[in-house]
Amino acid sequence: MDPSFIQQILIPTAQILVVVMVLPLLIAYLQLVERKVLGFMQARLAPRRVGWHGLLQPIADAVKLLIKEDIIPEKSDRFLFTLAPIVTVIPALAALAVIPFAGASFTFYGYEVRPFITDVNVALLYLLAISSLGIYGIILGGWASNSKYSLLGALRSSAQMISYEVPLGFAVIGVMMMAGTASMVGIVEAQRTAGVWYVLPQIVGFFCYFIAAIAETNRVPFDLPEAEAELVAGFHTEYSGMKFAFFFLAEYTNMIVVSSIVTILFFGGWLRPFPNVASLQWLENGWLVLLPVTLGAFAGWLFGLKTGRGLPPMAAGTVIGLLAGITLAVLDVGGLAGLSVPVVSGAFWFFLKVSLFLFLYIWLRGTYPRYRYDQLMNLGWKWLIPLSVVNVVGTGLGILVFSGR
Amino acid sequence: MFHTEILEVNMGPQHPATHGVLRVILGLDGETVVSCKPVIGYLHRGVEKLAEHKLYVMIPPLCDRLDYVGSASQNLGYIQAVEKLCGIEVPERGQYIRVILAELNRISSHLVWLGTHGLDIGAMTVFFYTFREREMILDLFEAFCGARLTYNSMRIGGLLEDVPPGWTDRVSRFITLFPSREKEYEDLLTVNRIWLGRTQGVGVLTPEDAIALGTSGPTLRGSGVDYDVRKAQPYSSYDQFDFDVPVGTKGDTYDRYRIRMEEMRQSCRIIRQALDRLPEGEVRAKVPKYIKPPAGEVYHVVESPRGEQGFYIVHKSGEMPYRMRFRSPSFVNLQALPAMCRGRLIADVVAIIGSIDIVLGDVDR
């Protein structure tokens, strides 16, 4: 077969397939993690019936959604009702096309594979544009259901998403100005050159972006469109079965996308902390730490469970695992064994940061009540938009003063 | 300029935030509520009529099922009404244990309110915390009378039985623990900016309106009217305990929230005093097996967790009441809903319904 055909057609197709296939599984388990973490915060056990400690629960949920009756309300607009979940889920998945999961490329049977689907020079604009498209699905779904609750939910949702697009857009401008590019890979490389994650100079932008992003993904405390207590389930009240699963998939994909964007724009993407400090080179082996920590925490947890001592053994296990892991990393065991792969290191740091943001999402859900519609609009228009505009101006002045560019 | 229509939305009777089978017909202009009409009757069982065909000793289970979240107060109110009619004096130990039961039940009822109120506003976690503590109270009740919700543990003339051994220590341990747990809820809500935004200034009920609509309990006190049946017309030796009646200033949802939080603390105080001074002796007066009151009528009110719970009995002859009437606080307080909701947003309606703390079994009877 023609090598350029493989390089340019087959490999990207395979990459897309991997992303689209792995993502639902990832989301299913993200949901299990969410339930487990919430359960821990709320003094209850969370799923533990299906599989060991509920490990097969996501599979059971997925099967349930698949075989559930797919109800289309009699007076709904059948075509739009079916179209809406598709229109919602496609932009969410399409956004992943420009997310780089790691920096360095690796070779696979002699072909160079980059750990992202594509790197376009207008990636940020593409992301902003494609995330706006998701609103269509929600409006269509809410309207086509021919239900008052759905319609109210859809109206709220569209008002909210359109209002929060603006600060979202302004917040990333600061980063674009500092990096001088809109390519995701370019922004991360600019942070390596600058030697500092952009969260420090762009702290205001980061807060604006993250708050607006939570609102954009309709999560607590901005989950008004699906406010259970008021609108039953908002725009997806009438949906069931796989169509509901699509909305669900879109919401969680958006969470992952937003967390990835925050990681890339403000937290150095796949870069380790202090990317230019040579004495911290061992952090490249950060993934080596993960295994001992997990093992230690797990053993400690089991020990605590068996002996009835609760969580302290788990903490002790984690600390021991952490120390052992750092020792391993400093000694560069991986390098000695010829296992030092840059792509693994990059992916490790990237997914670690993304996980932290996903955890933050869950934490917020366990802590906060819900905003009211007018309060939400106030926050968006009176606080976030002015603040993000000031941030753009401030960044411009800073660049002028410090680098004279 | 444009032709607009009011959107009519049926909230309930099956809706997650109406706490049972309340139906509210909302007229909406966008998100703003222009009219609000509660529709009740989905849980009507005709207990007042049923009671006319039952012996006096058979009626308490009916009262249990009025306000199933705070049934100790219902028992107490009904039984005291009968005792008033017959002129039965209850031994002091019986009265004290009744107070302990009623106040424990008040705490558990307020915990249900706090959890569901929080859930309505979107604060999910506090629900699980309150139900953790409520479980302890229900365990205490289970140890005392075997039932967890509908106790039916009081008898005309006192109580069925004395408390089991060690029970008072368990209650004492619980009320020692409880304030620290209540602080956990307060940490989550009282100073939370979003919670304040959602409750302050929402559903304001002026003192005049509150009195004119006949509201009682925390709904009335939230508006700044200092009226508590336990203080105004003390029953079951409430006059022997030292406790404060919290009163609000603005009459908004936040005030009603603060008042119920404070009431739980005051209930702990009352229980502590009752435990410390618990007299020895009998828990039940000598009463005949079949109660045959003299002809006459009686009205007795108690302060249930929701407000003023009244029992009106007309007795003519025999062993059954001629007419029975329950004045349920949930029903009366619900009438304040349209006044509080007008001009607010939909999200406020659920907050306000939560803050009135209705139980539909009590509304429909």
Structural commentary:
The complex is a heterodimer of chains A (405) and B (365). Chain A has 405 residues and is mostly helical. Chain A has two domains: 3-271 and 341-402, no CATH class; 283-336, no CATH class. Chain A contains 14 helices and two strands. Chain A is globular and about 65 Å long. The longest helix of chain B has 30 residues, at 92-121. The model of chain B has no long low-confidence stretch (mean pLDDT 86).
Topology record:
The complex is a heterodimer of chains A (405) and B (365).
Chain A: H1 3-41, H2 57-67, H3 78-94, E1 106-108, E2 111-113, H4 123-144, H5 148-179, H6 184-194, H7 203-216, H8 228-231, H9 241-266, H10 286-307, H11 312-331, H12 333-336, H13 342-367, H14 373-402
Antiparallel strand pairs in A: 1-2
Helix pairs in contact in A: 1-2, 1-13, 2-9, 3-4, 3-9, 4-5, 5-6, 5-7, 5-14, 7-9, 7-14, 9-13, 10-11
Chain B: E1 7-11, E2 23-29, E3 32-39, H1 47-51, H2 60-64, H3 71-86, H4 92-121, H5 125-145, E4 154-155, E5 158-159, H6 167-189, H7 193-199, H8 207-212, H9 218-222, H10 229-232, H11 253-276, E6 296-304, E7 307-315, E8 323-327, H12 329-334, H13 337-341, H14 346-356, H15 360-364
Antiparallel strand pairs in B: 1-2, 2-3, 4-5, 6-7, 7-8
Helix pairs in contact in B: 3-4, 4-5, 4-11, 4-14, 5-6, 6-11, 11-14
